[in-house]
Amino acid sequence: MNLNYTFLIALALSLDAFGVSISIGINKALIIKDKILFAISFGFFQFFCSLLGACLGFIFNTYITAIPNIIGGGIIVVVGVIMIKDGFENKDKKLHLNKIVYIILGISVSIDAFVIGFTGFNNIINFTEVFLQTIFIGLITLIVASMAFIISSYLSKINVIAKYADFMGGIILIFFGIKMMVFF
To answer: Where in this chain does the entry annotate a coiled-coil region (predicted)?
Structure first.
C-alpha cells in the first residue's frame, strides 16, 4: 500500500477525532493538559486499533460488519448526553476528567481504524510495513486532533459559543454518534 493511500485513510479516520476534539475543546474548563492528553489518546488508539485490526483481520474479517460502528456511535452518544447534562450544572467549577475518559473516547473514535486494519491492512505480509503505516495513521490523527483543539480554543472566545459549549458539543456528539450507528 503506498503512502498516498495510507495518508487518505489516515485523514478519513482522523475526522472522528477532529469532530470530537472540536466538540469537547470549546469547553473553557478543559485545560491544555487535557487537550494534549486527548490528542495523544486519539492518535495512540488510531495506531493501536488499526495495527490490532491488521494483525487479527485474517481471522475475524468475515464476522465484523456494523458492530464496531454501533458500539462507537453509542459511546459517543452517551458522552454527548453527559455533556448536555453537565451544561445544566454549575459552569464555574473546574472540569474533572477521569483517566478512563481519555481511554474511552480514544477507543470510541478509533473503532473504525480497527475495521480498516481488518480490511485494508490484513493482506500486508511484512509486519514492519504494517507497523509503520499504522504509526503514520496515529500521527496524522494526533496532528488533526491538535489542530481541532487549537481551533476550538478560538471558538470558545465567542460568547455565544462559550455560553452554550456543553449543549452544542453534546448535541454535535449525539448526532455524530447516531450517524456512526445508522450510516456505517
So the answer is: none
